[in-house]
Amino acid sequence: MIKERSICYPSGHLDPHKVTGIILCGMGGPDGPDAVRPFLRNLFADPAILPVPSWLSPLLGRIISARRAPGVRERYLRISPDGVTPQLPTTRAQAEQVCELLATMLGGPFVPGMAMRYWHPFPKQTVTEMLAQGVEQFVIVPTYPQYSSATNGSTLLFVQDSLRRHARDKTCHFLPQWPELAGMIDVFAEAAIEALRGFHAAGHKPEECALLFGAHSLPQKMIDQGDPYLQQTRQTVRSVHSRVRGALPVEWVARVRGGRESLLAFQSRVGPIRWLGPELVRTVQDLAAQGVRHLHLQPVSFTCEHIETALELDIELKEDADAAGIRTFSRGAALNLDERWLRSLADTIARQAFKREVVS
Questions:
Q1: Measuring CA to CA, how many Å separate 85 from each of 65, 93, 105, 115, 134?
Q2: Which of 37, 91, 115, 188 could form a disulfide with 123 if both were Cys (CB 3.0 to 4.6 A apart)?
């Protein structure tokens, strides 16, 4: 059993008249080339990422970060001239928009914030700054839709520790996961529908078209121990896939690869241990070998663009797809600042944290 699954996250009933801090929290990323090595050190020293004895984690973090930093630094520079992850400004803007929506819905004052697991801004900084702005209660939302002990679990524990240390007397409400958030399903489904409609309108044979869902991978050992990530990822895929099938010509979509039954593959594995499969690159190559020439990839793990979308998918995977014979490669965007998912998230916060029904 994964330890974090037994944690009961605070779910206090919040007062809409009090100043509420909305914290979006996630993995984070380097805010410049010099931050790459310490970011990696923090990442690989986290036992939730590399499940090793606690005494070994700091040593592994130092060793792995020293070896990987030069290459990772170059990878960030390929997607950003200053080596800064696009994740940070997008997450900040998402928090601001959610606060604006909640203020319109509920009328109370809301303060946006973000807290990251492996690099600045860390939760301590965010919590203390928000307290200085008069925040009286908190809502904490991970930027990972599907729960895993390695992502939501590790990040929420980190934030929770800072709240206990610096805001012990404040009421908090956590939203640990949201794998079927209505607005998220809308965004992902519409992207896939638009791409497949384009294939259909262009007269492409359905057997030469494919819809492939993509997600971030995890060590298989975590799933075997009860981590709910794979189950929740499949929930998301089922909901999106059902919407896509219902929006396209029945006979045509039934002959599309991944049209009748969903196809899901995983990216971003690290190291020699066994990870969730099938691997995304191999799946794309296999589809091409089966005659697919027009492929839409629909990721379901990402709330904003960062190195795993802008580099791994848009550049590296596309190069692999081109080499395998794929002529049309499209990729559904991350959620980013699409109002549909932000409004849906605000609705969910209003209902769950404030017990208010909202008509969107």
A1: 17, 14, 32, 15, 30
A2: 115
Give CA–CA dist 345/154, Å, rounded: 21
Length of the chain: 360
Q: Name the DSSP letter for residue 248.
A: S
Residues 6+ apart with CB under 8 A from 201: none
Contacts of 315 (CB under 8 A, 6+ apart): 78, 79
Backbone angles phi, psi at 111, to 5 degrees: -120, 125
Which pTM does this prediction carry? Answer: 0.94
Which one-letter DSSP state was computed for residue 349? Answer: H
C-alpha pair distances (Å), 117 with each of 42, 49, 156, 237: 8, 12, 9, 26
Q: What are phi and psi of 104, to 5 degrees?
A: -70, -40
| Cis peptide, bond prior to residue 121, ω within 30 of zero | yes
> In this structure, what token pair is assigned to residue 353?
């944290």
pLDDT in tens, 14-37: 999 999 999 999 999 999 999 999
Is 304 strand, coil or helix? coil
* Token pair of 326 as six digits: 């794929």
Query: What stretch of H or E contains 211?
Result: strand 209-216
CA distance linking residue 284 with residue 117, whole number of Å = 32
**Rounded to an integer, what distance in angstroms lies between the CA atom of residue 101 and that of residue 345?**
10
Q: Distance between CA atoms of 199 and 194, rounded to whole angstroms?
A: 9
Task: Write down the number of H helices and E strands in the chain.
Answer: 13, 8
C-alpha–C-alpha distance, residues 244 and 161, integer Å? 41
Antiparallel, parallel or unpaired: β 209-216 and 328-331: unpaired
The 8 Å CB, 24+ separation contacts for 132-135 are 133/19, 133/21, 134/19, 135/19, 135/20, 135/21, 135/111, 135/170
pLDDT digits (tens, 9 = 90+) for 301-329: 999 999 999 999 999 999 999 999 999 99
**Per the structure block, which two tokens stand in for 131?**
């307290």
